[in-house]
Amino acid sequence: MNRWNISSIFFLGEGGRVRVLDLKLGEVNIITGASGTGKSTLIKAIDYCLGSKVCELAAHVKRHSIAVGVKWVLGDAQMIAGRVIPPLGQDTSTKMFISSGRNLPIPTSLKEFEGATTLQAGKFFIERAFGIGGVTDASDESAARRWRPTVRHATAYMFVPKDVIYNETALLHGLDQADEAPAIIETMPYFLGVVTQDTVIQERRLRDLRKRLDREERQLRARQAEDSDYKKHAMRLLMDAHRCGLCDLPPDDSSETDLQGALFRVKRLKIGRGQNPNESELSSLHTQRRSLLSDIENARRSSRATQAALQEMSGFEGVVRRQYEKLKIAEHLQLVARTCPLCEAPSERGVAAVQAIRQSIDIVRSEGIAVENVRPRLVEHESSLQLELTRLNDKLKGVDERIKTWIRQSGEAKEMDDLAQYHAHLMGKVSQFLEMNPATPLPGPDLDVLRGQIEGLEALIDNDAKQVLLTRAERKISQYLSEAFASLPTVEPCIEADLEFSSKPPAIAIIEKGTEAVLRLPDAGSDENYLAIHIALSFALQKYLGKINAPVPGFLVFDQISRPYYPQRGEDEDSIGENEEVLAMRRHLDFLFKATSDQKGLQVLLIEHAYFGDDPRYVTATRMRWNKLSGDALIPLDWPKREGSG
C-alpha cells in the first residue's frame, strides 16, 4: 500500500470505555444501520480529527464520550490523531493529540493519549505526514494563509457527505461554504500536481513586485504632474530669483528633484545686486499671451469646420446611397431597352436612356468612394487639432503663471527699500519653503531595478507550461470521469453522456449523446444523475491523485448513496425483491467494489441504511450493522453521561 488509509476510528467514554471501529485497508468497508444510530457522525469525527474549527458531532456523542481518534496507516508507518470532544454547548476544543511510529496501541483513556499539542501544530504535523508542503512568506503572512495548501483543503477529495452527494451546484465537499470555497479552488492546481512550492513562491513575489511597480509609477506620475503644488510654488520662487539675477530660469519640464536642487543653490548664494522688473518683460509676456489666444482660436475654428464637414459628409453619404439604390433600376431595364415594350420595334432611345442611367450610377459610386477616402483623413485631422489645443492651453497656463508672478514680484519689490532687502526677503521664503517640504521631491525607489527583478521572475515562470499542465490534468480527469460515469445508472439527459471536468472554477460539462448539447450540472435534473456524477468524479479524482502521488490520502467516504432509489429502513433489501430501483443500486455497488479493487491503495467507507444480505461482497465488507433488533449504535446506549453534560 502506497497511500494513507484509516485502520481504526475510536471513541473514549467515561470509566475507560472504548468504542473501536476497525476498517480494512485498500478495500470497501460498509457500516449500516437504522436512523439515529450515529452512522453519519463518522464523517464528522474524521473531519474533527483532521483539524476542523468546529466540532459538529451529534449531541448524544458529546454527552456520552470524551475523546475521539483516528488511526492512519501507510505501510509500516502509523499515525494517531485525536481530539478532546467538547461538552454540549461548547463549539470546539483546541487540544489535540498527535503521535506517529509503528505498532501504535489504541489509547483507552485521555492519559494514554500521546503527543499533546495545539490545534495549529497538530494540523502541521498531519500535513507533513501526508506530504502537503507548507508555503509561507513572512513578508505577506495574510496572503500566505490564504493560499497555503492545508489538510483542510485535502478533505474536499475524500469526503462525499449527504449534503454534497445530491447537490445540484457544489461538486466537492466545502465548495458550498463561502469561507472555504475560495481556498479549495485556489489550491486545486497544487493538489493536481500542476504547481510546486517554488513556483507558488515565485508567482507570489512576481505579483507583489508588479503591484509595487504600479504603485511607484503612479506616485512618480503624481510627483511629475505639471500642476502639482510643489512644482507650482517652487517655480514661482525660482522665477523671482531669476528676475533678481540669482539663477537661470529652469525649463518648464523640470522634475521636482531638479527644482529642489535649484532652490538649494539659490539658498547657498551670497546676496549681490540684481535687476528690477522692467516693463519690456511684461509686454513680451502679454504679446506671447495674445499670440497663444489667437492660435487657440484658429485651432478651435479649424476643429469646428472639420466637425461640420464630417457631419455634412455623413448626410451626403446617405443621399448618395439613396440615389444609388434608385439608379439600380437600370439593371432591370438592360434586357428590354433595345425594343419598345408595346410594339416590340427597335428603340435606340431606350438604349440611350439605359446608358445615361449607368453613367449616373458610375458617377454616384465614384462620389461614395471619394467620401470614404476623405473621411479617415478628416478624422485624423480632428484628432491632431485636439492635441494641438491641449498643448496650446497648457502653454497659456504657463504664461499666465509668469505674468502673475511678475506682477506680484514687481509689487513686492516696490514695497522694499532697496533690492538687497528684497533679496533677503526672497531668500527667507526659499528657506521656509525647503524646511516645510523636505520629503516631497525626494526620489523614490529605482524603478529600473524593480523592472529588472520582474523580468527575471517572468523568465523563471512559464505560465504557458502551467496552463498546458493544468489542461492535461483536466483532460485526464475527464477521461477517468466519463469511463466511470458510463458504468453507473442514469436517466435522461445523462444516458451515455460524456463529462468534461474543469478546475477553475470546478465545474462539470455534460455532453449529451446525439444532440452534442453542452449542459451544466443543474441541467441534469435528477437525484439519480447527481448521484452518478458525484460518485464518478470522486473516483476519477482519486485515480488521478493516486497516479501522480498527490499528498491526499487514498480514502473515500460516501454517506447513503441509496436514498434516490427506495425508502431507508435499514432492513435486508433482499426481502423487497428485485425491481428497477434495487437493480440500479446493485449497479452502484458493482461499481464501488470494482473501482476500489482497480485502484491500488484506495480505501472506501460506505455509510448506508440498506443491507444487501444476498450479496456476499456486501456481507463480507460490512464492518458494523446497527439495526433496531440489536439496539446497538455508534456510541453504545449503556454508556454513562460525562460529568457536567446535563
Automatic annotation (TrEMBL):
Keywords carried by this UniProt record: Coiled coil
Task: Fetch the SUPFAM superfamilies from UniProt.
Answer: P-loop containing nucleoside triphosphate hydrolases
Q: Which residues form a coiled coil?
A: 199-226
Question: Could you name the domain of life of the organism this protein comes from?
Answer: Bacteria
- The entry's protein name is DUF3732 domain-containing protein
Species this protein is from: Cellvibrio polysaccharolyticus
